[in-house]
Amino acid sequence: MEMIAFLINGTFVFATALIFAALGGLITERAGVINLGLEGFMVSGAFTAGVVTYYAEQAGMAGAAPWIGFLAAPIFTLLFALLHAIASVRFKANQVISGIVVNMLAASSTFFFVKLLFDGAAETPLLQNVFSKVSIPVLSELPFVGVAFFSLYPVTYIAIALAIIIYFIMYRTPLGLRLRAVGEHPGSADTAGVRVNRLRFLAVLAGGMIASLGGATVTLTMNSSFTFHTISGQGFIALAAVIFGRWHPIGAFGAALFFGVAQAVKDQIQVIEAAKHIPNEIFYLLPYVLTLVVLIFTSKKSSSPAALGVPYEPGKR
């Protein structure tokens, strides 16, 4: 039972970054814009969190440093989200290519800035202040559920709350109705007075900023520094979570947890004596193999927004 409790806890830990990124991708794609740039947004967020947290530590703000880095991530990532929005919405460029460019630009530029800021080093210095798990009083002391659900990183609680908030906005408010409308039937939404391209533009910016929190989470919980390999494809796993979750906030949240299980299982299996003879590379393959398997079996059942990837021309309704 104890191992299961730690497995559930580890699932939430590893899934937190994916939840943020999947929710960011969901908002953008629900508005009708393909968000292949999730990887780049996460890289940007991871870089910003690492650098800002480090300099906040040097400035004597040790206790607040992780939060400063976490909140700074969306601000810097706004530049990359703006690039994707201008290219895909304003100039109606191919959205897939635009996302790939964002990924490449984020990876190369952040690597360059790390070398520039830290005298040619390939990574930021190891952070002295990162997030620690927060145990909820009384509840964390309960057998099994205390370890499994009530001793998590503070950003995990934020990710869970954000999923609920986005669900409420998307399905219980006029803004959410408009957002879904521009992704399904932009012509009808335009006729009803919704400024389609403006809403899509803002959705790309919001999605990129939220996805960056996923990258910041990786740096400030599991890595304690930023390197070129910090994200390592997690943005694409988050995109798979959006598809697997059928473009629904709770579905994407559940899919992120599902992929988080693979990471947690990897850590649990590695401590078992019988598994120590298995090469580590096999365990690192698990999340990506699981992603491919899920996409193979769910791609035909997934129904994306009708206007996803289709630029909107106001004169053509």
Automatic annotation (TrEMBL):
InterPro entries assigned: ABC_transp_permease
Main subcellular localisation: membrane
Keyword annotations from UniProtKB, A to Z: Cell membrane, Membrane, Transmembrane, Transmembrane helix
The UniProt record lists the keyword Acetylation: no
GO (cellular component) term, any one: plasma membrane
Transmembrane residue ranges: 6-26, 33-55, 67-89, 96-118, 144-170, 201-223, 235-261, 282-299
Domain of life (superkingdom): Bacteria
Membrane-topology annotation of the record: Multi-pass membrane protein
Annotated localization: Cell membrane
Molecular functions per Gene Ontology: transmembrane transporter activity
Keyword Membrane set for record: yes
Name of the protein in question: ABC transporter permease
Organism: Paenibacillus agilis
Taxon lineage: Bacteria, Bacillati, Bacillota, Bacilli, Bacillales
